[in-house]
Amino acid sequence: MTVFGGRRPAWRLWALAVLAVALAAPILVANPYTSRLSQLLFLNVALASAWNLIGGFAGQISFGNSSLFGVGAYATAMLWLAGVPPLLTMPVAAAAAAAYGAAWGWPCLRLRGPYFAIATIGVAEATRIAVNQFDPAGGASGLTLPIEQDAGGGALYVMGAVLALGSVLVSDRIRRSRLGLGLFALREDAQAAAASGVNVARQQVVAFAIAAALTGLAGSYYAQFTLYVVPEKVFGFDLSISLVLMVLVGGIGTVAGPILGAAVYLILEQFVLASLPDIHLAMFGLLLMGIVLFEPGGLAPRLAQAGSGARSLIRRWRRPGGTS
Amino acid sequence: MTAGVPLLEVRGLTKSFGGLTAVRDVDLTLQQDEILGLIGPNGAGKTTLFNLLSGSLPRDAGSIRLRGREIAGSPAHRTCQLGLARTFQVPRPFLSLTVFESVLVGASFGRRGGGEAPWARAERCLRLARLLRRRDSRVAALNLAERKRLDLARALATRPYALLVDEVAAGLNPSEVKETVHILRRIHEGGVGIIYVEHVMDAVMGVSHRVQVIDRGRTIAVGSPGEVTRNPTVIEAYLGGSDGGGESDG
Ligand SMILES: Nc1ncnc2c1ncn2[C@@H]1O[C@H](COP(=O)(O)OP(=O)(O)O)[C@@H](O)[C@H]1O
Ligand SMILES: [Mg+2]
């Protein structure tokens, strides 16, 4: 990837994305099914983009992001039940998840590769089991939230869109920043990065805390549209795995990959869930195997290639002879 | 900076790996604006010495002073930020980055100050290392000589006072060696002190002001290039080393 190569005016893309989301809103929100789908898409885009900050940019594959998601979801649920307006619980959810992420990321990120991955599984499972036992948070049966009066879906749609676009924007900014450069360097060679002045431990923890804050926000959002949080779901291993799959399928280490992977995942999930519940992860695993075998970089780089191919075709078609 | 203080002053540096003492009670002084050659047979402990100086490996004993300041015990990134940078015997490129981005890492994370934007310093270092043409190439596309020069450019971009260069001419053809030595001279003219580990004798003897010889972790000679090449202990160490083939136990 080219860290500082993105000279194309990014605002145009952003304007387009915001416009598309806004135009789609009335159609999507009108119908409860499509309204739900758009919420899930926003959720997955945010989660996958956040995961990619540490998994893609820093090359540290986490199977433990559910622990951060769950903290965000529970922070919102518990505060809401205590009388705090849900919107005001969101910063708390982000901060709590960031703090929790930094707390366990600090020791675990000293490990690399499979050792880090295994450590994240341990942390996430321990967290899930602990919450299961924690009666003030409802224990294994979780917490049910009050149904909102003005639950037309419009507010949740806007909130989800801001969350998803915001996560992608953060990811894009980090990619072009000093932090991003340090992450790419330490992903390629931690010792050489350190010899070039990169504080490997700190860069990773900072990136992880940002990812955790976004994941916690996503958890808070999830609590607000499902109105039900339960450890098996929000702290579940399935959730962690699905993020890894989304990003690998979409294109790890890229900004567009998580968006693409989240969309493919959602489509497949809906498609398969209708006919064969509970095997969508297996289906996705098969898709992943195919991608690893035939398109190891994921879908995004291939699509970008196809896109630039099409663009140059169009250019040639517009200006026969290619004079400039 | 007082004139009398050496750029780098090492006393009693020691490191063992299990039973093997790879660096044993080494003293070393790099003067301001000096190129110090560091030679010795394979396995003598040169790279280990660099790993200790750069904070890549913890030392067992000894002191390391950079411009009078004790830096022993500092982690690698801190050592770099304090102004002691290194290259690697086998280049360690950031494979998925471009040439410019790689050098920008050094320019962005190295010693602070200088009043120059990181990208401007990165370009300057690339020009000096004759890699400006390759600015936007992927590092993975570079050949060995280019990768060695990239390591140099990346280290130089961190604004070091002193630079540790490990076998930057090894494996290069004669014209590439000449070019690399020229680059070392240019770096030195820019006010950077250099410790230069090298097996290519023409290169290291031609460019060094003084040469220190180590064998089995100990210093066996220090002097001008001429003195060192005539030193019987040195000649014996090299002959013994090459006669011994792969033997490194002792
Ligand atoms: N990380 C390590 N663990 C164990 N032994 C090592 C390690 N690094 C170097 N050595 C040993 O230390 C000795 C010195 O190695 P090195 O510093 O690479 O020598 P040189 O660079 O002079 O050829 C060798 O015998 C080598 O096998
Ligand atoms: Mg060596």
Q: Give the quaternary arrangement of the chains.
A: heterodimer
Spatial extent as radius of gyration of chain A: 20 Å
Strands of chain A, total number: 2
Task: Label the structural class of chain A.
Answer: mainly alpha
* Helix-strand topology string of chain A: HHHHHEHHHHEHHHHH
* SSE topology string of chain B: EEEHEEHEHHHEHEHEEHH
Share in β-strands of chain B: 15-25%
- Stretches of chain A where pLDDT falls below 50 for ≥5 residues? 1-7
CATH architecture of chain B: 3-Layer(aba) Sandwich
User: What's the N-to-C terminus distance of chain A?
Assistant: 28 Å
% residues in beta strands of chain A: under 5%
Which strand order do you get reading across the main beta sheet of chain A? 1-2
Spatial order of the strands in the main sheet of chain B? 6-7-8-3-9-10
Mean pLDDT of chain B: 92
Overall body shape of chain A = globular
- The computed structural class of chain B is alpha/beta
Indicate the overall shape of chain B: globular
Topology:
The complex is a heterodimer of chains A (324) and B (250).
Chain A: H1 10-30, H2 32-57, H3 65-81, H4 86-108, H5 114-133, E1 143-144, H6 154-175, H7 178-188, H8 190-195, H9 200-226, E2 228-229, H10 231-234, H11 237-250, H12 256-275, H13 280-294, H14 299-318
Helix pairs in contact in A: 1-2, 1-6, 2-6, 2-9, 2-11, 2-12, 3-4, 3-5, 3-9, 4-9, 6-9, 7-9, 11-12, 11-13, 12-13
Chain B: E1 8-17, E2 20-30, E3 35-39, H1 46-53, E4 61-66, E5 69-70, H2 76-82, E6 84-86, H3 99-109, H4 118-128, H5 144-156, E7 162-166, H6 174-189, E8 193-197, H7 201-207, E9 210-215, E10 218-223, H8 225-230, H9 232-243
Parallel strand pairs in B: 3-8, 3-9, 6-7, 7-8
Antiparallel strand pairs in B: 1-2, 1-4, 4-5, 9-10
The complex binds adenosine-5'-diphosphate (ADP) and magnesium ion.
The site of magnesium ion (MG) has 3 residues of chain B, from helix 1.
